[in-house]
Amino acid sequence: MIALTDVNNNVKRTYENDAWGVLTGGTDVTTFEWFADNKLKKVVRNGNSSWFYYDASGRIARIGGYGWKRFYWLGGNLLAQLNWNATSKDAEYSYYGADNLHAV
Predict the structure, then answer these.
(1) CA distance 17 to 9
(2) CA–CA distance, 41 with 79 (Å, rounded to integer)
(3) Contact 11, 5 (CB under 8 A)
């Protein structure tokens, strides 16, 4: 079991895992489904489902369902996370050279 705590060490949520350490559920009525290659497939939290989609390189490309997101990459570097119709940025990423992420 994994426990998330606040700064005073009070347990806020717990998550269960199987014999291989893969998350399977949580106290906030969360369930997780995984592909055979250990990529996250689906999360259901309090009745709301989100599906995870990957590009040909295995990078997260889109989260569908509850809370749509799109992810844009340049090689191995994540550049931006946008809302479902790409009209607003949720996050933008910048790098000093290859693979050296820094705050934007």
Answers:
(1) 21
(2) 22
(3) yes
User: Is the pTM for the entire model greater than 0.70?
Assistant: no
* Single-letter residue type at 58: G
pLDDT grade for 20, boundaries at 50, 70 and 90:
low
Query: 35, 42 in Cβ contact below 8 A?
Result: no
User: Which tens digit of pLDDT belongs to each residue from 55-81?
Assistant: 999 988 888 887 688 888 888 888 888
- Is the alpha carbon torsion for 103, 61, 31, 17 positive or negative? negative
Q: How far apart are CA 61 and CA 97, in angstroms?
A: 23
How big is the chain, counted in residues? 104
Nearest to 71 by CA among 63, 83, 58, 81: 81
